[in-house]
């Protein structure tokens, strides 16, 4: 069931604060906490972050909080009071106790329709075991996302680049991958450029360089990716951003899908074709990601 904290002061905006209530308070995750009128439930209208916790330390917390605020801004939601959210996340981490790996999810919805007050909560629980994906790798298929690479600029109302609660499409893409005998997906723009996974960022290795598509392609600013680039600096590898086509993926030395909970999952098969990956580098990358204490 994990640990749940409901946020009474999701935004610094006074109208968002439940009068007389503490900034946040622990609640029973086994009991109903959300109104059926909440826009989280009725429209998936809100934003979230999933933060990895390793040995009691929330990883890349500053980056997650920055992205949380950025997503809220893209959705024209009230700006989250990051000091309150940080304290609530740390409290949940603390209450989870000494687990080797956990994840904490922070959610802010537009609240009950017409109320004008966002709903917020933070829930933490033990992570599933990702050892197999991290060590043996995953099979991935490329799928057309159906949007051009410049969608963020041409159609900002599509909310590209925001981590919204509307993940039904992302889950549908993963089910399609499973139907095709794979584990995960790399989305391709309708005009042929490589983007990201439904719940992960893409990192490719070409020689002594790690590359990733840039966020101007309407993809998320990955926090794990940021840590992978820190790892690259430690390894003496170069890093950069690239617009890659699906065909070019086949020419890379290694591919990974990286994300907060699973860390780095090397790709052992792409669209049914087996691929190599640098397993030593992969082990060091995952060790680095597991060790992070900030
Ligand atoms: N891209 C998408 C669409 C995601 O949903 C996620 C994480 O859930 C990521 C990228 C990776 O982000 P992070 O490394 O911060 O978990």
TrEMBL record:
<dbReference type="GO" id="GO:0016829">
    <property type="term" value="F:lyase activity"/>
</dbReference>
<dbReference type="GO" id="GO:0046394">
    <property type="term" value="P:carboxylic acid biosynthetic process"/>
</dbReference>
<dbReference type="InterPro" id="IPR001544">
    <property type="entry name" value="Aminotrans_IV"/>
</dbReference>
<dbReference type="InterPro" id="IPR043132">
    <property type="entry name" value="BCAT-like_C"/>
</dbReference>
<comment type="similarity">
    <text>Belongs to the class-IV pyridoxal-phosphate-dependent aminotransferase family.</text>
</comment>
<protein>
    <submittedName>
        <fullName>Aminodeoxychorismate lyase</fullName>
    </submittedName>
</protein>
<dbReference type="InterPro" id="IPR036038">
    <property type="entry name" value="Aminotransferase-like"/>
</dbReference>
<dbReference type="InterPro" id="IPR043131">
    <property type="entry name" value="BCAT-like_N"/>
</dbReference>
<dbReference type="Pfam" id="PF01063">
    <property type="entry name" value="Aminotran_4"/>
</dbReference>
<keyword id="KW-0456">Lyase</keyword>
<dbReference type="GO" id="GO:0005829">
    <property type="term" value="C:cytosol"/>
</dbReference>
<dbReference type="InterPro" id="IPR050571">
    <property type="entry name" value="Class-IV_PLP-Dep_Aminotrnsfr"/>
</dbReference>
